Structures
1.
Amino acid sequence: MKRTRLHQMFALSALCGAMLLHSVGVQAVTDEEILDDANTTHQIVSNGLGLAGQRYSPLATVNVDTVQQLRPVWALSFGGEKQRGQESQPMIKDGVMYVTASYSRVFAMDARTGKELWQYDARLPDGIMPCCDVINRGVALYGDLVIVGTLDAKLVALNKDTGKVVWRKTVADYKAGYSITAAPIVVKGKLITGVSGGEFGIVGKVEAYNPVNGDLIWTRPTVEGHMGYVWKDGKKIESGISGGEAGKTWPGDLWKTGGAAPWLGGSYDAETDSLLFGTSNPSPWNSHMRPGDNLFSSSRLALNPDDGSIKWHFQTTPHDGWDYDGVNELVSFSYEENGKTVKAAATADRNGYFYVLDRSNGKFIRGFPFADKITWAKGLDKDGRPIYDESNRPGAPGEGKQGSSVFVAPAFLGAKNWMPMAYSQDTGLFYVPVNEWGMDIWNEGVTYKKGAAYLGAGFTIRPLNEDYIGVLKAIDPKTGKEVWRYKNYAPLWGGVLATKGNLVFTGNPEGFLMAFDAKTGKKLYEFQTGSGVLGSPVTWEMDGEQYISVVSGWGGAVPLWGGEVAKRVKDYNQGGMVWTFKLPKEHTL
Amino acid sequence: MNTRIIYALALTLTSCWAHAVEGDPQPSVMWEYFHQRLLDNADFVFDEAVKVSVPPFAEDARQVPIEVDARALPGKVERVMIWAELNPIPQVLTLYPSAELEKFLAVRIRVEQATPIRAALLMDDGIWHVGSARVEAAGGGCSAPSVVRAQEGWEDHLGEIFGARFKAGDNSRLRLSVSHPMDNGLVDSIPEFYVNQAELRDRSGAVLARIDLFSAVSENPTLTLGIKGHPETQLWLRDNNGNEFTADIP
């Protein structure tokens, strides 16, 4: 047996051996930091810039006088062929940006330079069933973890320094039509997520997990008749049927495939200790198959974060027949009236009405149209329930035939869709991305089949105006008055940000990041990002300077479902990027 | 360019990437590089007691069988590292064996071009004992898309483990095959997706061997381990997406 002489090593070459590891001194994210996110400017550790979801920043270095000087400092591509459909909100912690991209990907980058630190690509099965593009809306940060929901309905926790998987849990069966696109949130040490799938006859649910190891803590179905559970010491314990019992607001066994997916996630109001989640359309779309209010579809729910029990609900579209999901964000805010502070929450619903609720009990305070044309209802009654125009409910299909078609506004994609509005604490106004469109809709027969679309309806969407669909509106929640509007040719599909600099930021499918005077609506700045902006802009402070970031990348639901509208946007090009801006130093007044 | 910079650069390169080292049975310009990167510049010998067997030519560059037989080597093994020196992803696996393992293992790997294959065993004397072989190849094994993922319904079979224990005298051979595409990220638009952790456990759950796997391992990885006696075992696997798989091997 031959062996070479021993090669003994006496000296290490420092020059060659130096593998400099990137170290940024990252601290763990705590519950306190998440709760205080709305008041802190040096980081963004919650979806909505604060759990209440106001999307308001107290930063004012970039303001109406300086915003014209805003310059891009870096951009990072999401790469490859997966450019389309970027709807994420970046998070910032200790100089690192965490942002998701389409196809359930997560990127971490140096927030100063845009240098990529790591990337996580979920391997998705071929059979995923996202109804409305392969998008993702962002991560949750907790401890050393970056947590994302995936299109195959899983939660994945990544190490924030390496991007390596720490744990991964199946939330629901993607083969039954479940998926996750919303950013999970962390409240009181619990990771809260909803699910998507309202087009596939799934049963919506909100669930809480232990963010450290992914153990399930509670599950709360959002369809009447389904049992909720809590887990104590590894034991699964019944915690009450949602709505008390089955069959109160649903006929037969349709509640078993009732939809009501809380697909946009939710917010948290610390003052009332409530998770505020919205739910989608009931399944199927054909409302004649399911007479009744169909709770808790098209509703806003206040859940107890400790056990998931439902404290109150407010249903915006009982017995929905137009795909008016009730998922849109319910934003907590307070205002003074008659010398009293009103603890309110506001939402701009798919159905065209803006609702102001009492967030302590869900009672209706007021509601008013925020879309120019609403035909499915004649108005709201004193409790906020719609007064239907029954002639504008699509007709029941006859034996094997298509029911009568009606033209209705707003369209099923909603007077406002997922894109979050912002609330300015300075002006007291909500800045709402609105779309003015209608649809022809008719019903068809349908039976439930696992993993197949469960609609029972056909539809095509049409613009109401030749020169615009999108309208950014400044709305006074106390009066319902529209203070200003900005018309946009293409439908708006991006989130909004308000700042103390008297500014409102949003993007459009044409590719511009835009800034408006919050009081007058005058457009003060725009920058072409190269592809449609569907993401939610954020702002934070780093090294004494104010930064603004937004993702760009056309896609989402409009080009997939958009009928006549899709023609209007067919020439918008794809591209997936994160853009980051700041003022040149000499312009910071 | 400034000549002094060139000189400095050349000096750096020569000091980092020295030429083939004395006594190397498979002389390679990459030896010093891996000696630093993987073996941390530690003491080593090229040792014929570490027998590395490969086919003389890789008929299928995506499935090249490698066998490491060091049963002739006395002493306790702390760690085993296998790498393909000229691969874009050189590392194949790192094995942390218990005393219950024989000094024998086999695995199938991808090779991108003709390359030396190394198996280095860190023994309890603190010295790496290195065995070498060379496989000739037409190439391309690392940059071809996996066959698995082109098959419909691949996700239904993901992580299926086929395996059996065979008696070999007083000891056993475990032969295991796992359904997994083992995507290495080098194929356009297909991100990394591969099994990167494995543990062989006995029936009580005690770990007999821990293995870190890299994406140089072939798709549907095939692994052979030698264990002492005839124990029933369990294999646990985890991929870089966090999927976990287990299988009992009676």
Note: The helical segments of chain B are 3-16, 31-37, 154-157.
2.
Amino acid sequence: MPTGDRLRRLVGRRGTHPAQRRIGRFGLRARITAGFAFGALVLSLLITSITYFTTSSSIVAQDKRSLELQALANATSLYESVYARGPEIVLPNVIGLSDELRSPTSYSLIYVDSLRAWFGSSPFTFSMGDLPVSLRAMTLHGTSAEQMFSFHGTPHFAVGIALPLGAYYFGVFSLSQATDTLHVLLASLIAAAVVTTLLGAALGRWAAGRTLRPLRDVSQAASSIASGMLDTRLETVGARDLASLTLSFNRMADRLQQRIERDARFTSDVSHELRSPLTTLATSLSVIESRRDELPERAQRALDLLGAEVRRFQRMVRDLLEISRFDARSADFAAESVEVGDLLRHAFAPAGHEPVPVRIDPADDHRELLVDKRRIERIFGNLIENADRYAGGVTQVTVETGDHFVRVFVDDSGPGIPPADRDRVFERFARGAGTAGSRGAGAGTGLGLALAQEHVRLHGGRVWATDSPSGGARFIVELPISLPAPGDGDGGDDPLAKTTGAGR
Amino acid sequence: MASHILIVEDDERIRASMGLALEDEGYDVVEAGSGEEALERFAQSLAFEPLDLVIIDIMLPGMDGFECCREVRRQSVVPIIMVTARTDTHDIVAGLEAGADDYVTKPFEPKELAARIRALLRRARSTEGGPSTLTFGDLEIMPEAGVVRLAGDEVHLTRTEFLLLCELASNHGKVLSREQLLERVWSYDYFGDGRLVDVHVRRLRTKVEPDPANPRYVLTVRGLGYKLAP
């Protein structure tokens, strides 16, 4: 089985190969997608913050400028109103004035030195104590000033202007409109950043898919080769960077296929070459055997040894040829629909062997089974031979049927097969564990059970070994029941649907 | 009188050993090392002592076994056993299509070959009993005389084809499974090769059916076997 071994070594077993365990949790595609998304996020955050800060500072500066102007206008009108009536500031003039300066988003305060009193626009929601201390101090010292400050949690802008003749004007303006604008701006910038990030992720996913498609093709081709479709090749279309990968992959597949096919062909060729001398040997032997009585006793014994070995040799070549057809996948399947009872009774009565009784429920006897009769004969013939050789013969054959399968239990009363060897017995040239190495008279070819397994597999069934309830070993052959498709009229050459196809 | 058997085999040693073995069985053996030589021997034998059976190896240098088989079949209805190297459907069906009655695969058991020869020779001699003429529409079968007529014209059938037709005719209307036909016509057991029956039925149809693609007489019963329409 060099081909099978080599193939397995090359491709590894699915899911258990150490290389497969080292692969990280995230795929290449996920990583590329994440990279794109992260890039988009960073970029959009950068743009968002730059936009936000430049816009906000320009809006605030603009607001300040217009508020300064307004404060100045207020102060001018105050000045004109107050001093139009004379050089003295009198109380009634001032009280009326602060009301004139009222507006929903601003407050005005007036301090008059001579009166030592504060006047404010009513309603009196803003008092002198609410003014920033430093601004008040600076203005009262005669220097006009302005300052941003927070009042009731919203930003306000205060302007203090010293008027001639010991009067001071303080204008306080709410900046809530500007901040509202900035909030809306910030919200839309964040939304834009989120959208940009998502778009980046989508782009990354798409790009990753495109970039990794050739890799995916390679991976699919490799697993298809591993599953036995040796003629799988990659298409040579695609990007130029990938041409060399495609080329070397295909070259590797060529070499692999050649090698596997050469190995399979070698067995077949050797067996073919052995057939002609074997035919001469067997035929000449039969001529001598028909004159056995004329030979001296010692020559008779030698002749018997020769005869046994030639026949074993012949069986071995036949088995090797058969198994090489499985390896070369050229095993054909001559399907016929037969009744289970008939088939098994014939299979358990091979030529030159005492028939083994088959226990089958009469209700199951006529169930139809689609099989290759010759292969079924070989399956059970080999099981009988195996039991004869290692376990003193088959003791019981029982048939059990389900909706979709037929199970045949072949029991013997030998020493049984230890659980560790139950798979190994189906390997080529494996010998019974208890009798390892001892090859008695009429030893087998070492391929019987391996071939039986191949034949069963070709039928889509399985075979395995277990313990017989009566001691000894039990071989179980499970064959699927699949009735041929309904007839498509008369006129066909064969009475039965005949399928031919490569195995496994 | 001993039966005459022609062995066509290019491997000299196989040919010699087969000759020895068959002579032991009581046959007169004629040997040929190539297809061309075989046809020469065959022509000579027609002159004085006709051959009873021909064994042809498919793998021959020069004229191959299939061609040799077809040529012999063209001249005679003698039973032919072909020796193939492979059990593949292709080779066996091709050999049977070329006119072989049966086949053995190398390396064969000498006993197996002897059994196949005996079955063919025994068959060639025994077709006695039963009614003298069976008629199905335009098809007339005379088992004892060994004659088949279609619309009055004699049809030339090989022994195997003839026996197959007789077997179906004497059970007309009944379905015969491939196993039953293999057993009765070829003396095979249950595990005989169903392709023997299929190919011979196909050949029989080309001779007795007015339209072999739509048979009137030899009918297929899908999943069961064949029958002759009454």
Note: Chain A touches chain B through 42 residues (CB under 8 Å).
